[in-house]
Amino acid sequence: MVEDRIERKTFIQAPIERVWALITEAEHLGRWFGDAGAEIDLRPGGALVLRWTEHGETRGRVVDIEPTVRFAFQWAPFKDPAGQEPDDGNSTLVEFTLEPEGPATWLTVTESGFASLATSPDQQVRNWEGNTRGWEFETGELRTYAESATVR
Asked: To pair with 112 at 20 to 30 A between CA atoms, which of 38, 91, 119, 135?
């Protein structure tokens, strides 16, 4: 049986406003998360596109926004089950939650819905494992990017 949820908490030595900008602005998302650019219509129902040189393009849809507190989107990054546009059978929900701690930020990334993917149980596990490794890498990239003196 597949785990349905990934949760990763990361401490970032940057103000919450900066971290918020880095997870919600295409200019930044396309640097630390996708390495080949991003597009985002930052409103509930708005389109999200993430691009990677090696992995191609993934589409998503903004679900919820609470500035400097919570940003959530549904996305379809999987080859199995495949689908360009996210729907109930091919996508998971990603939630970024931010909490200030002095001049720094606690970021929690949660991705859920792996058990509902319309694919085999073995593939559900592979998708969960791949994204677990991916979030470990990506949250490290975000922390490094946010703590860089050149980011404003």
From this structure: 38
